[in-house]
Amino acid sequence: MKEFVPVLKRTKLFSGVGEDDIGVMLSCLGARLLFFKKGEYVLRQGEHLSDILVLAEGSLHIQKDDYWGNRSILGHIGIGEIFGEAYAAPESGMLLNDVIALENSSVFFFDVKRIITTCSSACRFHTLVVQNLFFAISEKNRSLVQKLDYMSRRTTREKLLSYLSEVAKKQNSPYITIPFNRQQLADYLSVDRSAMSNELCKMRDEGLLEFEKNRFKLL
Amino acid sequence: MKEFVPVLKRTKLFSGVGEDDIGVMLSCLGARLLFFKKGEYVLRQGEHLSDILVLAEGSLHIQKDDYWGNRSILGHIGIGEIFGEAYAAPESGMLLNDVIALENSSVFFFDVKRIITTCSSACRFHTLVVQNLFFAISEKNRSLVQKLDYMSRRTTREKLLSYLSEVAKKQNSPYITIPFNRQQLADYLSVDRSAMSNELCKMRDEGLLEFEKNRFKLL
DNA sequence: ACAAGTCGGTTGTATTTACAACAGAAAGGA
DNA sequence: TCCTTTCTGTTGTAAATACAACCGACTTGT
Q1: Per-residue pLDDT tens over the stretch A69-104
Q2: Torsion A8-A9-A15-A18 (CA) sign
Q3: B90, pLDDT greater than 90
Q4: Which of A128, A148, A170 to mutate to test the interface with B (most CBs of B within 10 A)?
């Protein structure tokens, strides 16, 4: 577990906490580290959760499949990102989405009660972590609003442009790499893959952008 | 300001705190109470925010208008609800949406720094309020995910059904009242009003539901 | 190297939606 | 009360999307 302390140090949750202190907090917070093989479910729709999760290694998708096999991708989780935090609250109902490992992944589980209940002992940084948690959830909240903004666009083209330009803004470069292949991007934006593929090519022909696989250049 | 203490007592933010203690905390937290006339902007897109807001009186819409006048409604705020919390974090950028008063409204402003920075003085319940804030943001987060679920549906009918049945689940009754008129509901679900109106009538003719104005009965 | 599977692009058709325009009912103001 | 405005439903047409089917390029595993 200690091997991932440098990873944790760079996360929003432990921002401002030194590596030594993180090591102490791991036991103070009762952290557990679980490993998931590619394709395995980290969390399943309908489950109850009382932990906040941090991805230490690998990558994940938060997604949902309906009875007819239609998939909807809510988001992508990269190394160091927090997830599950919205469902860790005691009165929160069950999970609405699955979380699935895209590759072999390691995940930290922190019992939410032990985070928000400040312990009186050695954890000097406990208060800081609670604040960090607040900021992290705020940020997640904003990114959900951002996604609602993509999704509220009426046409596939508008959805693509608003998504891609937002990614470019975040990565601060017109050259962007997205964590989705075509089918996944379509599931993320809730559009038809073939129509989206078609639209992307039209936009390329019109000189709006260039792409190759999951790398795009906005013009 | 004191007149709204009973309202605050019933909010998520002050859950578990007695009225007397709320009175003390109002000054401890440096609360401000602002009044807005019907139609006025409470917050504007592009502004920066360092407060968490609680609606004491009236009702609000969180919405966004683009250059062509197309409106997108993110959500409705009722009495006692918290808003703005996602943008109060120091590193959060500017607001992505407007907040507008649907009727004459009163809004509490709480400086977020004074909430998350526990004061050493009299506020016995400060820690509780921080936890409440965490749960409130979690809940907001879940409702955003819920909205993304409506929005990910491909057809107007599916959007309507998923939204209305979710409201029925929340209100725990097949008779529901929604805080939107037709145009607002269309802006909330990001569909065309006339097409939606058409679809609603088809669904009524098929016996799926009944409605009159903003009151619906699911069958 | 081969076979099987995945991925991205293309096309045609049926379905669905957006848009515009209009009309009756209801609500609000003078 | 009358007039104006808002709200809701209706219709027709143009545009966009979903769906299915197919192909070639590329990957993966044996």
Answers
A1: 789 999 999 999 999 999 999 888 899 999 999 999
A2: positive
A3: no
A4: A148
